[in-house]
Every structure is written in structure tokens, then in C-alpha cells.
Design brief:
By secondary structure, the chain is α/β, with parallel strands linked by helices. The protein has 10 helices and 11 strands. It is about 40% helix and about 25% strand. The longest helix is centred in the last third of the chain and has 15 residues. The structure holds zinc ion. The site of zinc ion has 4 residues, from loops.
Length: about 260
């Protein structure tokens, strides 16, 4: 049993939550408190009814998420939004959300952990957002087809499938960059080209990014928004479990994307 305040203080300091730039809907940090001490920690990528139900069924009363309660923006608490809040309050479940701080973290961040999972070693940061870099990049000599296969293995583990823009059969990836989640954008493609990156690994992106990338000589691997963001919250839950000697559980609700 641990007080919510001590966990929140630890997480805020670990993640540098205060002052970390982000989309305003991210509202990083404690989003919903509870009156009780914390007895079990659940982690999930998305705050949604099914993850709340999962946390309740596992007897967890702190839910760590990447996309929090306010992800959909300013909206009335009706329908599914009302049901989410009601279920959380009725079960006494607190919510702590971490978006870009958890993408960018050097040890438990989505980007660094996805790189490790793909057998890649980062040597620099990538994907600038305001004053910070949230992604990673580095060099390798791996066949691009092999990298696509590794990304596909990650995607399939979490209920998805990896896709990529076309790659020549004998192509090698010499310079790569990673930006998890909705990582393919005009900004990341521009930055990739600037650093002579030849393979960009993201969660997802619009159709035109594959065309733009192809014309820049870049192969984009879309490994799934959900799959690429399972790493950080799981690592965060492990960290809390180790630090405060609490049981943890990951609530896996794949979106297929
Ligand atoms: Zn995301």
C-alpha cells in the first residue's frame, strides 16, 4: 500500500512532467485522484471503458495511460465519457497520464524501447516538438526487409500488422529514425531528409506520407500506433511496481491500428 501522492511525485520527477511541452489534450500528470492508498497498478495505452473495466477486474486502483481522459478534447461528459468517469469514480481508480514525456524518456520511453526491440542502437535524438526531441535515430547495416519483418513481429504481438512503403529487395538501412504513434508527418519527413535518414519507423501516418517519403528516397515502416506505444506504459508500470513494491498488470486492448 502506497499513498497516491508519493507515486505521483516520483512519476512527475522521473518523467519531468512539469513544463514538458505537449498537446494541451495530453494534460500530463495526475488526471483523476482517489481517496484510497494504491494497492495495485494497471497500465494501458488508451483510457477507454475497456481498460477501466480491465483495471477494476484486476483490482487495480491506479491506471497509468499514454492517451488520457481528455484526449478527445473539450467535450461534455455524456455517453461513453460519462460512463468512463462514472466507472473510475465508482471504483476509486486514479488516472495518471503521460504522453510526450513517456515518448521521449531516455530509459523507459516508447521510442528508445522500440529501437531496442528492433535491434537498433540510438546515437541521436529525432522528431522535434517545440523545445524537445521525442524520437531517436541512429546508424545500422541491417537489410531494410529484415527491419520490416522485425517491425511486423512487434505489430503482430499487439494485434496489428506492419506496413511499409516499397523497398528494393537488397536495400540496406544505413540511417534510421523512429517516431512512435502518429509519427509520419511533414515535419518528421523533412527532418529525416535533413539527416539523410533512409528508413523512418513510425506507428502510423497518412497515405501521402508514403508518397512523399518515396520521392525523398526514404522507406517508411508503419508498425502500428498501438503497438509502438505499448512499450512506455508497460515500462512505467514496472518502474512503479519495483519502486513501491506493488503488483502491476498491463491491460492490453489492441485497436488494430
Ligand atoms: Zn499516440
Amino acid at each position: 500500500m502506497t499513498s497516491l501522492t508519493s507515486i505521483v511525485n516520483e512519476l512527475d520527477s522521473l518523467l519531468g512532467t512539469q513544463g514538458f511541452p505537449d498537446y494541451k489534450e495530453a494534460l500530463n500528470g495526475l488526471q483523476l485522484e482517489t481517496r484510497d492508498d494504491i494497492t495495485k497498478v494497471a497500465a494501458a495505452v488508451d483510457l477507454r471503458e475497456r481498460t477501466i473495466n480491465g483495471a477494476r477486474e484486476h483490482g487495480a486502483n491506479l491506471l497509468l495511460v499514454h492517451h488520457g481522459l481528455f484526449w478527445g478534447g473539450l467535450q461534455p461528459l455524456r455517453g461513453s465519457r460519462f460512463r468512463r468517469l462514472h466507472a473510475l469514480l465508482a471504483s476509486g481508480i486514479a488516472v495518471y497520464s503521460s504522453h510526450l514525456p513517456l515518448d521521449a524518456h531516455a530509459e523507459i520511453g516508447n521510442n528508445v524501447l522500440l529501437a531496442r526491440e528492433l535491434g537498433l542502437t540510438p546515437s541521436a535524438s529525432f522528431a522535434r516538438f517545440e523545445t524537445i526531441d521525442i524520437g531517436v535515430r541512429g546508424e545500422s547495416s541491417v537489410a531494410t526487409a529484415e527491419l520490416i519483418a522485425r517491425a511486423d513481429a512487434v505489430a503482430r504481438r499487439w494485434g496489428g500488422v506492419a506496413r511499409s512503403s516499397p523497398a528494393e529487395p537488397h536495400r540496406k538501412t544505413k540511417r534510421w529514425a523512429i517516431c512512435t504513434g502518429g509519427g509520419a508527418s511533414a515535419e518528421t519527413l523533412h527532418e529525416a531528409a535533413e539527416h539523410e535518414v533512409d528508413t523512418l519507423i513510425v506507428g502510423e501516418g497518412p497515405h501521402w506520407t508514403a508518397i512523399e517519403a518515396d520521392e525523398l528516397g526514404i522507406v517508411v515502416i508503419y508498425a502500428g500506433h498501438y503497438a509502438t506505444e505499448t512499450f512506455g506504459v508497460r515500462a512505467l508500470a514496472d518502474y512503479v511496481g519495483r519502486t513501491f513494491d506493488l503488483p502491476t498488470v498491463f491491460i492490453d486492448i489492441p485497436t488494430g491500428l
